[in-house]
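Hi P.,

Sorry for the delay on this. The queue was packed all week, but I finally got your sequence through. Input first:
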Amino acid sequence: MSLLREHAPADHADLPGPATEQMLAAAEERMGVSLQGDLRTWLLQNNLDLPEEDVDDDVMCCGFDGFPDEGSFLLGIRAMERLYANHPLSGGSEWREEWIPFLSDRDGWTGKFVDARDGRIGRWFVGAPTVTGEYASLAHYFDSVAETLTRIGAGDCPVCSVAEGRLVWS
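Then the structure:
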């Protein structure tokens, strides 16, 4: 988040504050799963839920567009809960209860999840095989996001630049 603040300060300024322990405990109870350590730590620092008045009920997931990449966004606790409860792959052998989505596109067709059992990161794409263990942890995933933000800040990313303090994807 410090790299986002450094390289895209206007985007960073739009982000809401942290979740509370009470919010996380209530979400865990409703989902019936414990939030994994790195995910809990992240949410206690960065709950990226949109304000209620900006939530679009016609889409599966709402979030801050354009971060960490074009077309997807990191989810806040309310959005995680909603996607967890209504995941397009749930109810079959392609989705497991211990997978907690933390990044998604607007429709919930593709994204990343934390495996609550061991903290590994996987990804799903409706119509393609689910991949587990894409990253060893949420920290490893965020390392890759930090590398991308560093490249963007250095002007070394052909698909993204910064204009007026905001990430602009081409």
